Amino acid sequence: MKVQLEEEPGIGRVEAGVSRLPRLVMLCGVFASALVLGGCATRVPFDYTAFRQSRPASMLVLPPLNDSSDVLATPGVMAQATAPLAEAGYYVLPVTLVAESFKQNGITTSQDAQEVSAQKLREIFGADAAVYLRVKQYGTK
Amino acid sequence: MSGAVTRRVKFVALAVAGAALIGCAAPVKPIYHWEGYQRQLYGHLKGEGTNPDEQMRLLQAHAEKARAAGLALPPGFRAHMGLVSLRLGRDAEAKQQLEAEKSVFPESAPYMDFLLKRMSQPKP
């Protein structure tokens, strides 16, 4: 705070009453920056280095695994997954057709779909990246 | 003198508050026209008995609305429409829709080609 005061000539001489202000401001500042940081920021940092380096353009959303008690979590999340990815600039393979293709190849569960090798997925869908989702909680609580 | 300090303080406080407000929000105009489309995908994935005729009608209405508003159709929309066409037994239309997906989104080409190839195979 002292440094800041000295930057502007003359301010160092202000009376006690005013010097309380900067302290308040600093408190505000700390609070606000915590807000700024806390607002966007996140939980555990995940290492996205390899992902970024490969610069994927298209994404294959695989049927989500479901740990919740609601069987509708899988279709629910799969139906909603395209929008955020597409709005972020990725091409997302049509989820209904993807689900259909799995079914036609005898793969009827999300578990099985997520266990298909990356190589095989690439062969059929030709996407740059696959999105593996797991629903832990679904619906209102 | 104290006036200058107050002014400065006010400025800093405003700047900080501003930063806090715009930090995350910043509403961005969506790239694609989504409205209701995801609900349709959900219905389809759920295997709910919405009949393909009704689905096609909704999809066409959606496409029409997007066109009128000058908004882009989401990735996968045309291909999904193709799937519904297929359910309706309109194979030629389905092919066109898959081709349309491919030409609008070249990233879809490998998968669309895979599907088109399957469609052209004689059905067992």
Structure description:
- The complex is a heterodimer of chains A (141) and B (124).
- Chain A has 141 residues and is mainly alpha-helical.
- Chain A has helices at residues 2-7, 16-40, 49-54, 73-87, 95-104, 110-115, 118-125, and strands spanning 58-61, 65-66, 91-92, 129-131, 134-135.
- Chain A has two domains: 2-40, no CATH class; 52-135, ABC-type transport auxiliary lipoprotein component (Rossmann fold), CATH 3.40.50.10610.
- A three-stranded parallel beta sheet of chain A has the order 3-1-4, with helices on both faces.
- The two termini of chain A are 46 Å apart.
- Residues 1-38 of chain A have low confidence and may be disordered.
- Chain B is mostly helical and 124 residues long.
- The longest helix of chain B is centred in the N-terminal third of the chain and has 21 residues, at 2-22.
- In chain B, helix 4 (77-87) packs antiparallel against helix 5 and helix 5 packs antiparallel against helix 6 (109-120).
- The chains are: A mainly alpha (141), B mainly alpha (124).
CATH class of chain B, named Mainly Alpha
Any idea what the shape of chain B is? elongated
In percent terms, what proportion of residues of chain B is strand? under 5%
Low confidence ranges of chain B: none
Describe the structure using short key phrases.
heterodimer; A: 141 residues; mainly alpha; Rossmann fold; two-stranded parallel ribbon; 5 strands; globular; disordered N terminus; B: 124 residues; Serine Threonine Protein Phosphatase 5, Tetratricopeptide repeat
